Amino acid sequence: MGHLSSMFNGLAKSFSTKKGRRSSKHDRREAAEAMVKDAKKNDLILCSSGTVNVDGSNNFVSVFSKRGKKGVNQDCCIVWEEFGCQKDMIFCGIFDGHGAWGHFVAKRVRESMPSSLLCNWQETIAQTSLDPDSDIYDEKKQRRFNIWKHSYLKTCAAVDQELEHYRKIDSFYSGTTALSIVRQGELIVIANVGDSRAVLATISDDGNVVPIQLTIDFKPNLPQEEDRIIKCKGRVLCLDDEPGVHRVWMPDEESPGLAMSRAFGDYCIKKYGVISVPEVTYRNISSRDQFVVLATDGVWDVISNEEAIDIVSSTIDKAKSAKNLVECAMHAWKSKRRGIAMDDISAICLFFHSYPPQDQVTLE
Q: Annotated region Disordered: where (predicted)?
């Protein structure tokens, strides 16, 4: 990784002091931006269809995205291996934009979230006086998760606030979901805003590969979500030609008809119960856990958790696993949703064990 890699090795330590003092927010942001540039230079960041397979890493990642039939592809992804120049960390994020400016919103959040999360993560570590190299840090997984949770909550609030004041993008009637995972050693932290989904594949007692859903699809008709929206004077109802598809509406207007209860952007409806607060959870990876799939609702609208895990498990060339899952979802749209325009479909498959290089996935 070169000079920057050694400079930022032991991220929390390097941030906690600068010339004998605690670093400022400006210092931390500069450092995070430098790490982004370094990661891009060393091909550690992937923002399109393809694979990430870094020598010596315990991760192997396959990514694929396909435009639907509604116009420009509003899905986007990011994979950052050696996240924050930490050898045992990886960040994966998938974003599903909506509205006229949705693709711009999704890309803006993809651009700002990882570096903002790094800044908040190191700041939280410094505030808790926790040394990431100490035995205590390795042993206290719950405490480590709490640091990530606090960092994610702070990051999502900041990203949404900055987006509202970003004049180059009109996000008043447009927004994006955001689902991301940080793997740090044997800990995975999952943060979800919206209705994309993360599903883990693990080996059951009888030796079969089975799915475990790690996230909730934040739809407006979920009891806790609907209750919050109604208390804020928003409305949750289905259109006559879309039975079963619950949407959020303003009190006295037939807009925006948002099909999820959490999102970045969408400021027209924010005071009526739609929020950008993530649900943050974690899992300690066991020897039985094989991989995790992150995918936008274009996959889950037509593919079950079990089907997705079976598709990825049965793909011999793991580099093509995300593409295979997306293509299966495309075929399912044609058979299960005839007459309905196919949604954008994107998936990330994060394997917990590195694989030998295979033929590269064709970029689209």
A: 15-35
By the 8 A CB rule, do 173 and 189 touch? no
Distance of CA 342 to CAs 246, 293, 328, 335, Å?
19, 20, 13, 11
Residue type, 149: K
Round to the nearest angstrom and report the end-to-end CA distance of the chain. 29
Would 188 be classed as within a structural domain? yes
Containing structural domain, residue 126: 3-218+277-351
Identify which of 91, 133, 128, 138 has the alpha carbon closest to the alpha carbon of residue 111.
Answer: 91
| Ramachandran bin of 122, using left for φ above 0, alpha for ψ from -120 to 50, beta for the remaining angles | alpha
**pLDDT, tens digit (0-9, with 9 covering 90-100), for 181-219:** 999 999 999 999 999 999 999 999 999 999 999 999 999
Q: Are residues 143 and 36 in the same domain?
A: yes
On whether the CB atoms of residues 35 and 321 are closer than 8 A, the answer is: no
Q: What is the pLDDT of residues 262-277, one digit of tens each?
A: 999 999 999 999 999 9
Q: Which residue has the higher pLDDT, 130 or 109?
A: 109
Q: Is residue 283 part of a domain?
A: yes
pTM listed for this prediction? 0.89
